[in-house]
Design goal:
Elements: H1 2-7, H2 9-17, H3 26-31, H4 44-53, H5 65-83, E1 93-95, E2 98-100, H6 112-124, H7 127-144, H8 162-179, H9 185-204, H10 214-231, H11 234-248, E3 260-264, E4 275-278, E5 280-281, E6 286-287, H12 290-307, H13 310-323, E7 327-328, E8 333-335, E9 348-350, H14 355-362, H15 369-386, H16 392-400, H17 402-409, H18 411-415, H19 419-431, E10 441-443, E11 446-448, H20 460-472, H21 475-492, H22 510-527, H23 533-552, H24 562-579, H25 582-596, E12 608-612, E13 623-626, E14 628-629, E15 634-635, H26 638-655, H27 658-671, E16 675-676, E17 681-683, E18 696-698, H28 703-710, H29 717-734, H30 740-746, H31 750-755
Antiparallel strand pairs: 1-2, 3-4, 5-6, 7-8, 8-9, 10-11, 12-13, 14-15, 16-17, 17-18
Length: about 750
């Protein structure tokens, strides 16, 4: 029973999911001729609306390899330059854990290169940077931590340690979040204790209800979010909620005019069409200061990286839109004239805030995406120039602006690091027999599992082997993949192009054909650069033969269940991707339209059901599911919706169709309230196919990570590494016992993560 809870869909996929809900009518369903569609629409009004919503929409932007390389080079060169004294008169160097700048009366201000070092160590494995980061924070804690948990002494005209404490705590906490896999337990504990001590001081000191200025109250909020992220202590979650609420809406009797001021009221929930700022007072009352609004945007961006809170995304959008009219996007400067704290006329400063790029990458801001690379070029130039002059502001901003960009831009690489070792180890384990009683081994092109009556269910390790070979050039994995698909085609391909025999209670070849074709197509796309022309032709012929069978058999207009009709669409997309044959493009459009909106006269209650109507074209603010029927009519099944999300994710990676991305968002949002993001389980209670109360399964779907990496879902990004760690745990655990479901899902869940760009 424990295995079922841990792996979840791994067990169900090969058994229950693939059986038709119509029982003895499965054979009829498979043989049924294509049914006519009503009117000129392939799938009715819903499919038309679905396509119309996406007209003209662009896919979310992602950091480019050039972006990542530029940021890596900038941070690496900066850390190297600032750590080494060029000569006896150079005031800037690293010594005894301190970054000396020639302006050394503000210890938190000089910590920025240490934060940059932590990012370099975490993302690039730089051992020298790791040593610099450790020395930086060890020394700062030992030297500046006070008995009450605060950090001091205060800087300049500051009369208390609260601002120093908050700002250093935010620098400190960034390091353990990034570096935890490389830190020893004692140091993790010491740094965590320093962070929570700082948070406790701010709570006791009343800072969560004192409006110093907008950037400061938002900084206090960030400290609480970091403390909660590192400890999972609900005390800090409650403190975060208090601090954020106060930053946005302080008591107007006590703090008249302070808080969030909206200058353009948004209609979208994410604030992308609104504008606003947190007030800043320079002594003449609260108001708008463009430069400090830019600083607020920096804080909000770091906060969104920490917890993905949609309210923070909304704030980022409001702040960005507020200052955008003042940004010169050629010189990349910000006009700060007439601000409440910088009142000078015709004053400009460089605009280096990470908010623009992060909104483009993780906030769905298509309008900002074309500007991101240009701004990063200016950031690179600005910070490299600052290396030649003594500028304490550069030290602090190095740790908060380009470092924030670098952490976001390289997050997916770090997230997916465990996936390749998992797949490599799984392929090795499942291909070798540990002893005469071990039923799991590879022989003659077949992955034996001890449950061998469903050939497509056992192909997963072959798909994983193809992904490993494509990613690393591993010749053993390549050989295993080639043998897998050569043997499956030779043994299971039927004269009509289908693959069989059917599995379990299936009475015809259509489901077996579709699911194997999708495995074959995935391997073919991944391995094409390494395959010989004859094998490419043979595999392509097998894939298109399967697609042709499904078309002739009427499967593109027969609603077996949501995950199956979407799987048929994937087969057509793969066939078109491999051949560029317009026949399969047309078949794909037919299959997708039917999956979303089948003729309601013929299929009443089937298709896409929206439970929250989205306003955004990509569906990120909506929720929905494709219906699944367990025998009592179509409806919602949480576990099957997760399987639909798996298929939609594969489809999106095959063709980048915005409609597939929209489905991914709808499915993810539909099941998200049922996901325990600590145990990474999915509550499947009350489903149309899994009605058992109190039932939960492992949530291993790649949809969450791919939405974070490729779909601009920054709200999901902070969850990815935790989920992938649990996926690693779940699949490694499943290697220790016979579970045919694991074989199939190995090729669709972690393998999809590895193949995602």
């Amino acid at each position: 029973m424990k295995a079922v809870v841990a792996i979840g869909w791994l067990v169900i996929t090969a058994c229950v999911l693939l059986a038709s809900p119509f029982g003895s009518t499965v054979a009829f369903a498979a043989r049924a001729p294509a049914l006519p569609t009503a009117g000129s629409s392939l799938a009715g009004d819903l499919a038309g609306d679905f396509a119309g919503d996406l007209a003209g929409s662009a896919l979310p932007a992602s950091p480019t390899a050039s972006d990542r390389a530029r940021l890596l080079s900038l941070l690496s060169d900066s850390v190297t330059s600032l750590s080494v004294q060029s000569g006896p008169t150079d005031p800037r160097y690293f010594s005894g854990g301190g970054w000396l700048s020639g302006q050394d009366d503000c210890f938190r201000c000089n910590i920025g290169p240490g934060v940059a070092s932590a990012a370099l160590a975490a993302r690039a494995g730089d051992a020298t940077a790791l040593d610099l980061a450790i020395q930086t924070f060890d020394q700062a804690i030992a030297t500046h931590r006070q008995p009450d948990g605060s950090f001091g002494p205060p800087y300049g005209t500051e009369t208390g340690p609260d601002i120093q404490t908050m700002m250093f705590a935010n620098e400190l906490a960034t390091a353990p979040i990034a570096l935890t896999p490389q830190l020893d337990p004692g140091r993790i504990q010491a740094w965590t204790s320093a962070l929570t001590g700082a948070a406790d001081f701010l709570i006791r000191n009343g800072n969560l209800s004192w409006y110093t200025n907008g950037n400061i109250v938002l900084g206090n909020t960030l400290t609480m979010a970091l403390a909660y992220r590192v400890t999972a202590n609900p005390t800090y979650e409650a403190a975060y909620e208090q601090a954020l609420a106060f930053a946005l809406t302080p008591d107007q009797v006590r703090w008249p005019g302070y808080g969030l001021v909206s200058t353009v009221t948004p209609t979208f929930s994410d604030g992308s069409d609104g504008a606003g700022y947190l007030t800043e007072s320079g002594g003449s009352g609260p108001g708008y200061d463009p430069e400090y609004t830019g600083l607020q945007a920096d804080m909000a961006t770091r906060l969104f990286w920490v917890n993905g809170d949609p309210r923070v995304l909304r704030l980022m959008n409001l702040l960005m839109n507020q200052i955008r009219p003042r940004i010169d996007t050629t010189a990349w400067t910000l006009d700060t004239s007439g601000g409440s704290r910088h009142q000078d006329q015709h004053r400009i400063v460089s605009f280096n805030s990470p908010v623009l790029a992060v909104l483009a990458w993780e906030g769905g801001r298509e309008d900002l995406a074309p500007l991101a690379s240009s701004q990063m070029a200016a950031i690179d130039q600005n910070f490299r120039y600052a290396l030649t002059v003594t500028d304490i502001g550069m030290y602090y901003n190095l740790g908060s602006e380009p470092t924030s960009l670098f952490l976001v831009a390289t997050q997916s690489t770090t997230d997916r690091a465990p996936v390749l070792p998992l797949l490599s180890d799984a392929v090795n384990s499942l291909s070798s027999r540990s002893g005469p009683s071990d039923p799991r081994y590879f022989i003659g092109g077949v992955w034996l599992s001890g449950q061998d009556d469903c050939f497509r269910c056992n192909i997963g390790p072959g798909v994983a082997a193809a992904a490993v070979a494509a990613s690393t050039g591993d010749r053993l994995a390549f050989g295993l993949a080639v043998l897998t698909f050569d043997q499956a085609i030779a043994t299971h391909r039927q004269a009509d192009g289908s693959f069989g025999p059917p599995a379990g209670t299936e009475t015809s070849d259509d489901i077996q054909t579709m699911m194997f074709a999708n495995e074959l197509g995935t391997a073919l796309i991944a391995l094409t650069p390494q395959l010989d022309p004859a094998r490419i032709q043979a595999w392509t012929s097998a894939l298109t033969g399967a697609a042709d069978f499904l078309i002739r058999n009427g499967n593109l207009s027969w609603y077996t269940n949501g995950n199956i009709v979407l799987g048929n669409a994937l087969t057509m997309a793969l066939a078109y991707r491999v051949t560029a044959n317009a026949t399969y493009q047309t078949a794909y459009e037919q299959a997708l339209a039917f999956a979303i909106g089948p003729d309601p006269q013929l299929w009443p209650g089937y298709g896409l059901v929206l439970t929250a109507t989205p306003n955004r074209p990509d569906g990120r603010d909506g929720a929905g599911y494709l219906t699944e029927n367990g025998g009592s009519g179509p409806g919602y099944d949480a576990e099957a919706t997760s399987a639909q999300a798996d298929v939609a994710t594969q489809l999106f990676l095959v063709n980048g169709d915005p409609r597939a991305l929209r489905l991914m968002n709808l499915f993810m949002n539909q099941i998200r309230p049922r996901i325990d993001t600590t145990a990474w389980t999915l509550d499947t209670s009350g489903g149309t196919r899994h009605p058992q109360p109190g039932r939960s399964v492992g949530f291993n779907s790649p949809v969450l990570a791919v939405l974070a990496w490729q779909g601009g879902r920054g709200d999901l990004a902070p969850l990815v590494s935790s989920q992938i760690a649990m996926i690693d745990h779940n699949f490694r655990g499943a290697l220790t016992y016979t579970n045919t479901g694991m074989y199939y899902n190995l090729g669709t869940e972690p393998t999809t993560l590895l193949l995602s760009p």
